[in-house]
Amino acid sequence: MKFFKFLISIGLTLASIYFLSIRLHVGQSTLPPLGKFLNPFQGFWQNAKPGSIDEPEEFSIPGLSEKVTIKYDTNLIPHIFAQNNQDLYTAAGYVAASQRLWQIELVTHHAAGRLSEIIGNKTVNMDREQRRIGMTWSARKVLEEWKKYPEIYNSLEAYSNGVNHYIHSLEYKDLPIEYKLLDYEPENWTPYKTALVLKYMSKLLTISESDIENTNFLKIYGLDTLNEIFPDFAEGVDPVIPPGTKWDFKNEIKPIEPDTLFTVPLISNVYEKPFKGLGSNNWAVGKSKTTDGTAIFANDMHLTLNLPSIWFVVQYHTPEFNAYGHILPGTPYIIQGFNDSIAWGMTNAYRDLVDWYLEKFKDENRDEYLYDGNWLLANKVIDTIKVRDDEDIIDTIVYTHHGPVVYDRNFQANSQKVNLAMRWIAHEPSLELLCLDKLVKSHNYDDFKEAIKYFSCPPQNFAFADRKGNVAMIVQGKFPNKYYDQGKFILDGTTSKTEWQGFIPLDENPQIFNPDRGFVSSANQHPVDKSYPYWVYTNNNEYYRNRRINNFLNQTDSINYKDLMQLQNDTYSIFAEETLPLLLDSLKRDKISEKDLTVARELGNWDYKYEPLAKAPAYFEMWTKELYLIIWDEIFDSDVPLPHPSSYQTVWLMKNEPDFEFFDIKNTPEKETLNNLINISYQKCLQDIKQWRADNPGKELNRSSYFHTSIMHYAQIPQFSAMDLEVGGCGDVVNAITNTHGPSERIVVKMGDSIQAWHTYPGGQSGNPGNPQYEHFLQSWIKGTYFPVYYFKNQDDYPDQTIFSQTITP
What is the pTM of this model? Predict the structure, then answer.
């Protein structure tokens, strides 16, 4: 009997060891091996940090040529002092890995279509999409381009050396907690992975075209209706380059005659596009408009709000340059920032940079495709997606000279015999890193212009300010020179007539230096007015933030840096100002009860500001959402994807064409008027309010509770996220905070003899949820306050703000 009990005990012990050492599947979730994860000496307990830094004060990295010193300030911002660039970027790689290792690896797995290796079959379609649009293909192409420039490639190898030194120093207990939760280990870093990080951003900021949706709309409603709802230049826009600018060049590209025989079937699916309305604000105020005669620069880039933050702040100091700013973890170079002489920053310059070509293959094998009367050989790539705890997925991707065939019988086209090849500017080799390398070394406007000519994709509105009080704006990118309407719809891939016919010369990109109005600004609006000689098109222009910024900057010639902080946090909605009076004037109040008029009265007293606890913003969002859905019911009820009209053009049509054909509910026998739709949507709004209150008992309906803005951890772990923040703003105000997106950083730089700067962002420098610095800047970002920048001129500066010094030796 004792022996039997002994066997049972041994069996239970072995079973416990087994179950604690394997990944367990519980419902839809997977648990890590609990033995390792719960181990008090190696598991998640080790990720809780009582202090900000748990790093050696001195260590060696093979490959360094001289000593590197790193000073961490109270905000955990590293100030790296090196004697040459290679040593600098080796240290930068180590620092980035020590603070953000899991984040940089996750981004590259996402970009390369390798999430399924970690997560399993839930992400297979996402991985297939990444591979089919050519993310890895284009990353390899750009890597080969970088190899032609030793100053770039050597820096990338140095950065990789630093990252890998940190990785190789880790034991299981030291791994970021996400590796333990997901039960995998980091890989070695390479320059190719840095290329993937940049392609990830290119996709985020350039794949927002509506070619397929436009083609569907054209077939159903015709060209005249499409142009009325989706004009290239809406009335009343305020472009990046001020109206009236004279252009001293011409465009020789002429439209081609459309092929009336070219037909395209209705396409029933499109891949998921990035969040509509991703953008940024930047402006630079010249010396003539500031209180002390110095230029002031401001930038806030709007992206997905995540923890850890998408940005990491650094200062780089070498004998060649001294620069401070934001980097993308996984890349070595400062993207936005300032040095001893200039400040620079970016907003996305939306343009149609993706075109779709309908290819005609010779047969079902798709080995050859028709082009100018000849059959050309296609290139086939057999792609294997490894799936954790499941079988590999094999996919065949066909390439023509236009690019990868993304939509076909096997993906997205619902078995239709539609073969759409993707021509994307991000597939072109480019040298953005050379631009960034030159920017940190720039001393004046000429240096700045020379640097940014290497920046191709994603195109950006580059704002500039210098210590002499100069300001400038350049809409920079590699823009295809298209004939009118080229690429707005699916193109015929069988003819060379539809090819891109070259690129707009860099010197003819829209730009302005020291304009008469005394400032430059951009907020993702139209880059130019109709006078610009080249055809400019995108479906993603912004119409409100830019006008609010320009109105503010135009109204005074005594601006100081605090004014610009106030402007970055401004929540006033021009959209509400231009829309709400029409809605309230259209209400049939005699048919609405006193109780139900409470919402209208609240809106009537509103100051159009999206303040955190204001009720009116929530009511206005509900009302306009219902009205938008009713007006464009034909689009939202369509069996095929169609483009979504802008709110700006919707309101323009309401004011100028109240009898427009879409102001009717298609599924009712009556012919509704716009006035009917406004009143119906108000009643729907009241129902939405009632339902919201029923779903949220005890909560007050206001801007914050309605938007419930949350900054989610990349792995969507609520405990590592900042949930339901009490913040103001919305997508069309300067402080463009929505439920998931918003200003990913804010910086204000006062130029002059002594440069001063202030910044904040929604997160912290550490990527470890157990570190006190994980959310260090968050409350500042919420409240609209700023931290002063400690801009070191030498290693001995700011002794009271230096919390840790680190030395790396060869």
Answer: 0.93
